[in-house]
């Protein structure tokens, strides 16, 4: 029996470089940085002071339920991105059985800002300011639950917490739900608000750059902690064609693996990354030379970029040097559990529009990172198949393949 073909028909993005598909895309192609001095809390006690924060998100534009404004930031991002995606898909939810619409969302930190706020109140001797309603929004599953609540979706609702690969995992699970018949439409992606816990943790690991993020560059010094969200509308190709929907791309495969090596460090030979990419190629029934673009995990840390490069060369062989590879984290920073969802949306737009976003701040080649990183300027290219890497703490590795839809 032929497997159901799953397509992407709507995109919603909330990011440090712009909110909404067009603002986000134009910033990416223009090489615009979303990194600035952190405003959400005092960073004077830390070694670095910059990150990527979402700006100018207007709640009234996206939220209708009177209960939603009390939700925490991660849920607000996800609701806004879902509204954008549904509008982009031109999906009339009044004409669809809402019990057949599911939500799959990935995250790293969940609603950690609530915990941070409550902890500050206790430390400052202000326990009376603790809000029970805020506490009820702390659990990570409140992010997709609030999305379902806002839109009245009654299908499966799940949260995936595989750290920085969670967005890809959520898209993979969404495809499983559609193919199993448990849902007719799934809103899938990832959401992560700016986390002081993550900021402190990555600073203590000396993984945050003091100046700019320069993935694959010889002088790279680390990443920026960031925030954001992307939600994608996924449905079967038959349903999309039936309603005349615009199709951005088809989900060809989601390859997963775990390198079982270390809590925070990648396997030195890239075992997990290699397995994830090979699994994706096998599932998609594609040869390495059929990949036209790789959206890199590309954090800008010395170990990640070197190991990811080696893993790509291991999987793609001679074709590796001919495939453009770029990292949008050079502009956005690392949006944690939202990163691979935002990068999936990027790959869908790359396929749809024929332009590859650049790796910014790349000036000095590293002999250990010797691929085509699309340095500093977007590039016109006919991309029919794109692979997006996402590698996470705990060894959780993923590789998502999107391809141009041939209906």
Topology:
Layout: E1 6-15, E2 18-19, H1 21-29, E3 35-37, E4 50-52, H2 59-62, H3 73-89, E5 101-106, H4 112-123, H5 132-136, H6 142-151, E6 157-160, H7 166-179, E7 185-192, H8 196-204, E8 228-236, H9 237-242, E9 249-258, H10 271-284, E10 293-295, H11 302-316, E11 325-326, H12 329-332, H13 339-353, E12 355-356, E13 379-380, E14 385-391, E15 396-403
Parallel strand pairs: 5-6, 5-7, 10-11, 10-14
Antiparallel strand pairs: 1-2, 1-8, 1-9, 3-4, 7-8, 9-15, 12-13, 14-15
Helix pairs in contact: 3-6, 7-13, 10-11
Description of the molecule:
The chain is α/β, with parallel strands linked by helices and 407 residues long. The chain has 2 domains: 7-242, Thiolase/Chalcone synthase (Peroxisomal Thiolase, Chain A, domain 1, 3-Layer(aba) Sandwich), CATH 3.40.47; 253-403, Peroxisomal Thiolase, Chain A, domain 1 (3-Layer(aba) Sandwich). The chain has 13 helices and 15 strands. The protein has helices at residues 21-29, 59-62, 73-89, 112-123, 132-136, 142-151, 166-179, 196-204, 237-242, 271-284, 302-316, 329-332, 339-353; strands at 6-15, 18-19, 35-37, 50-52, 101-106, 157-160, 185-192, 228-236, 249-258, 293-295, 325-326, 355-356, 379-380, 385-391, 396-403. The strands form 3 sheets. Strands 1, 2, 5, 6, 7, 8, 9, 10, 11, 14 and 15 form an 11-stranded mixed β-sheet that branches. The protein has a two-stranded antiparallel sheet with strand order 3-4. The chain has a two-stranded antiparallel ribbon with strand order 12-13. β10 (293-295), α11 (302-316) and β11 form a beta-alpha-beta unit. The longest helix has 17 residues, at 73-89. The mean pLDDT is 92.
